[in-house]
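[INFO] parsing input record for Bacterial Ig domain-containing protein
[DEBUG] input buffer:
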Amino acid sequence: MINKKNTNKVAKIAFVGAIALSVMAQPLSTVAHAASTINYSVNPTTLAAPTIDSVTTNSTSITGSGIKNAIVTISAGGLSYKGIVLSDGKYYISIPRQAANSKILATQVLNGQSSATTTVSVAAASTSMNSTTKIASPVVNPIIAGSNPLTGTGIPGAMLHINIDGNYYSGIVGNDGQFSVKIPFRYAGTKIEVSQTFDFKTFSFPTTVIASAEEIQPATPSVNPELQAPVVNPVAAGNTPITGTALPGAMLHIKIDGNYYSGVADKDGQFSVKIPFRYAGTKIEVSQTFNFKTFSLSTTVIAK
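[DEBUG] output buffer:
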């Protein structure tokens, strides 16, 4: 409404359902202009999604790249598996073989921020190598962390092709079909792939083994705050195992009176580790790791 009788008075202009403004009355036909400013906030950018390397029906691990120290969660076959991104930006997570065309999902979390999800489909593994060369895969015995040799059985006279973290080593299967190959020191969780060949042109499918945990003290441990501490059940004096829950596939690092012991959490996150006899009052510290380089904070329990 505009008061025509007194152009010096304030007029009120109202727009139903919008806003009301007070302005000085203006001569007829005056064009008025209005502008508005809206304040709003933008949500912080989410982390970049991790990458997933190609996955086939023969794959027993998921590899890819992510942000250093981030926790990567892999979803496959209705189950979740966790791992940590190492200092080189790579991660490695063991999973069971998956069906062709099934989906693998990956996310990463760092400093409370979650990434978007990366999804890949499982491809059917090619069988052309086996059907053409008729070379069977070698059998590799279980191996533990440390510097002991890699052993197993293969075709007599075959040459072994060993891949550890992108580095390659060779050996020869003896006339009795047995082999023993010296390889460098490796931490628990190290993936070792072994194939055999007679000409280094055609190879068998690789056999993959994972170095299991052993009693080992890391030289330069550091704490990763993103890695939650394990839950340790009450411990009684005596020689019963220490039990609790941790991240699936994580390696437990147990300190008792300056001595170190190790174990591995299963796919359900449960662990049970045999430790020596202890008296009431013994302090037990338990942390978890995926690479024996960065560790969670420790959970401390006292034997009663």
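[INFO] Residues 1-33 form one domain.
[INFO] shutting down worker
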